[in-house]
Each structure stands twice: as structure tokens, then as C-alpha cells.
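Researcher: Let's continue the batch. This sequence belongs to Reverse transcriptase Ty1/copia-type domain-containing protein, and it's 293 residues. Same format as the previous ones, please.
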Amino acid sequence: MTQEFEMIDIGLMSYYLGIEVKQIEKGIFISQEEYAREMLKKFKMSDCKPINTLVEIGIKLSKNEDGEMVDLTFFKSLVRSLRYLTCIRPDILYGVGLVSHYMEAPTTTHWKTTKRILRYIKSTLNFGLFYLSSNDFKLVGYSDSDWARDLDDKKSTTDFVFFMGDAAFTWTSKKQPIVTLSTCEAEYVTVTSCFCHAIWLRLEKLKMLQQEATDIFVDNKSTIALAKNPVFHDRSKHIGTKYHFIRESIAKEEIQLKHAGTQDQVADIFMKPLKFGAFYKLRFLLGVTKIQV
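Model: Same format as before. Here are the C-alpha cells for Reverse transcriptase Ty1/copia-type domain-containing protein:
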């Protein structure tokens, strides 16, 4: 069955966010190159030394970092500018989310991490999302979580991304509203949010009739077992009732959980610093690349 979709005219919004759309023979390339250039210029980083990874490996930030306080207005303006860039650049989502936690009392340590993000952007100015021409309209999701990532309140993060074809078209990385007791529980909460988003996409946003279940890939086998098998109930009594929505969705065959190895878990790029090899691979799988001509 052939599906047709109309591209929404975002009008003035595309102007303010600097979104550029280029139609070429192989597909559509969407970027924010000029916006990124102007941002580097505004924050006096146009001549910074480029770097090929987003965040330093092993970094752990908290609200009580050593160092002098940074100008609050300056730092907030910078982080907000970076957040606009995540509209088209999901590869920077982890770094931007990390520094966003410290907007109320930034120190030179936080500023150093933010500066590194700008150096990465300098090296990838001409990157964007490339959507190849395709007849593959199957909705596929990847879900992951970083347990107790926040050193200040020990809350985990919910990270997921959805694909239709070869490039990501919607993604999320946000702190969970509760403190979870294990990696399995943190991933279970994340998968529930991912399920809700998948059903909303299927029924409301895309208005498409997909007979088969939407595949969602996770890298935690315990989470898959907990979602599928009610026998695990005794181990999950403390988890809020709303998070068990998963089991109903699986029973209705709306959603299907599948295992993905860590090296193929695309959402992993949203939750921790990665070495260049792993970062490069997941960035490519997201569909973030240079323009193809």
C-alpha cells in the first residue's frame, strides 16, 4: 500500500531556527548550518579548534563543581541557542541535555563542557539529516536509559528515537519523574514512554494504518522479560501502575519489543559520552551526515 505525506510549511519558524531544506536527486537534506555559524559568531567561538566528539569520555558533572561562577545570562543564552540546534541535530542532544542541568549556577567547569560542544559543532557545520527517497514507511523505535545519570538527584533519563526509513524523524531525551531502583526499572519506565509515543504516532500524528506491530529495540533483556511475563509481578509491585501499560500494548500486538546489541542501540548516543568509533557509527545510523550529492 502506498502512503503519501505532506511536508508541513513551518514558515517563519524555519527562519528563526535557520532550517534549510535542500531537495536533491537522492532525497532531502535538512540542516541548520547558517544558524550554527551565527551561533558560533555570537559566542565568539568562530575561530575555535574543531573536535570530532561531543563530550569528553568519563566526564561527571554536578551542581557543586569547583571553579568560578560564569555569567548567568551569557550561559543561559548559549544553552538555549544550543537547544534550538537539536531540532535538526539529534547527535548533540546528550551534550546539550547535560549542560542544561546547570543553567541556574554555572561554573567554569560547566562552561568548559559547553565550549567543547561548540568545538564539535564547528567540525560538523555542514551536517544535517538526510532522508533518502524510499518506499519504506515502517515505523521503528529504539529505547534506552541511563540509570541514575544525574549525580545530584539520582534520577535516570528516558531516551528514545523513531525512524521511518533510513533517518530519525522524532527523538527524546529527558529526565524521568521518579527515582528508579535498578537499570531494569529505569529501562522499563523508558520503554513505557516510548510505547505511548509510538501509539500516538501511529494513530494521531502519522494517521497511518500499520497492521503489524511497531518494533521497538532495547538492549536490556530483563526489561523485555518484565514487559512480556506477568510472572515477574512480585518483582515489580513497587513500579507505578501506569508503567504496566506496556503489557497491554504487547497483548494487543500494537508494539513488539526486540533485543538490540549495545553496538546497534541507536539511542545510546543520547545517554553517555562515546569514543569516536562508536559515536561515528551511531551518528551515521541516526541519519546525521554531510550533504550527499
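Researcher: Any comment?
Model: Residues 139 and 164 are 5 Å apart (CA to CA).
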